[in-house]
Amino acid sequence: MATEEALNYNNDDDEILRPDDLSEYLAAGTKEAHDRAENSPFAKDFLRGRIKRELFKLGTAALYHVYSALEEEIERNKEHPLFAAVYFPSELHRKEALAKDLEYLYGSDWKSQISCSAATRPYVERLHHVGQHEPDLLVAHSWTRYMGDLSGGQILKKVAQRALKLPANGDGIHFYQFEGIHNPTAFKRLYRSRMNELEVDAETKKRLLAEANLAFKFNLQVFEELQEIGNGIKEEVQDISFPAHGDLGGDISKCPYYAAKMAVSGNTTYMCQLARTLLRHTSAQVLLATWIAAITGLAAWYIM
Ligand code: HEM
C-alpha cells in the first residue's frame, strides 16, 4: 500500500510536527535510551573507526537475525491497520542486503558460520512475540531500526568502509545503503507523516513508547555483548579521523554538533575544534570583539 506514493515523496513539503504526534512522542520518549546507545563504548569506538573486522562480522550477523525476524513479522502484518501505512518493503527491507554482506564477509558458506548470539536471541524472540500476539506494537520496532539506519547508520557506513578498507563498490556495507531511497531526509519525513496518521489511542501510544524503549534496550545489549567479545579479540585497530558525516559527505570532525559533544566530554582536541568552528562565523567574531573591548574598557577604568 505504501510503496506507490513513496515514489512521489519529495523534500519540499513543509514538515509540521507536534509533540503529541507519534513520531515526536517516540523520539522524545526514547531520547535518554538513544543517548545511552550513542554513548556506549561500542558505538564510540565504532564512530572513531576503532572497529575490529571480526566484531563487524559478528555485528552484521546479529543484524541479520534481527531483520529476518522483523521483516518476517512485517510481512505477516502488512495489512494490519496499525502498520499498513508504514509498509515500505522495497525501500526499507534489509534482510537481502545483510545476506549479501555476510556472503562477502564470511564466504559462500556464511549460513553455517553464523549463529544467533545470546544478546540477539531475546530481541528476536520479542519481535516474533509482537508480530504474532501484539501486532499493534510492531511500528515501534520498525521505527527504531529503520529510522535509526537512515540517520546515524549513514555515518557508520562511511566509518566502516574506511576503517575496514572495504571496497568502494559497497561490498560489506549493503546494509547501510538504501538503494530504493534517493533522499533519506525526505523519506524519513514521509515515514513520520505516515506514522502520525495511524489511529493510535492514548493507551496504545504509551505501550508503543515502552516498546520502542525496549527495542533500544535490546540494541544496547547487543552493543554490550559485542564490546565484551571485542575485549578478547587481538586485532590491531587504528583511530581514523572521522571521515564522513552521513548524507552530507563531509568530515564529521568539522560538525559543530559533534565537536560540542566531544568538548563536553572533556576532549581538548574537540574544544579547540569547537572554538575554531565558532570563530569561523562572523557573529561569533563580533561577539568576541565586543567582549575584548568591554574587558579592555573595564581594565582601563580600574587602572584610572
Ligand atoms: C552509533 C551510535 C548512533 C549514532 C551516532 C546515532 C545518530 C543519530 C542521528 C544523527 C540521528 C538524527 C537525529 C535528528 O534527526 O534529529 C539519529 C536518530 C535516530 N536514531 Fe540514532 N544514532 C546511534 C545509535 C542508534 C541506535 C542504536 C538506535 C536504535 C537501534 C538509533 C535509532 C535512532 C532513531 C529511531 C532515530 C530517530 C529518527 C527520526 O525520527 O528521525 N540510533 N541517530
TrEMBL record:
Entry similarity comment: Belongs to the heme oxygenase family.
Keywords: Heme, Iron, Membrane, Metal-binding, Oxidoreductase, Transmembrane, Transmembrane helix
Molecular function terms from GO: heme binding; heme oxygenase (decyclizing) activity; metal ion binding
Source species, domain of life: Eukaryota
SUPFAM superfamilies: Heme oxygenase-like
Species this chain originates from: Astyanax mexicanus (Blind cave fish)
The keyword Transmembrane helix is annotated on this UniProt entry: yes
E.C. no: 1.14.14.18
Membrane-spanning segments: 286-303
GO biological process: heme catabolic process; heme oxidation; response to oxidative stress
Protein name: heme oxygenase (biliverdin-producing)
One Pfam family recorded for the sequence: Heme_oxygenase
Principal EC category: oxidoreductase
InterPro entries recorded: Haem_Oase, Haem_Oase-like, Haem_Oase-like_multi-hlx
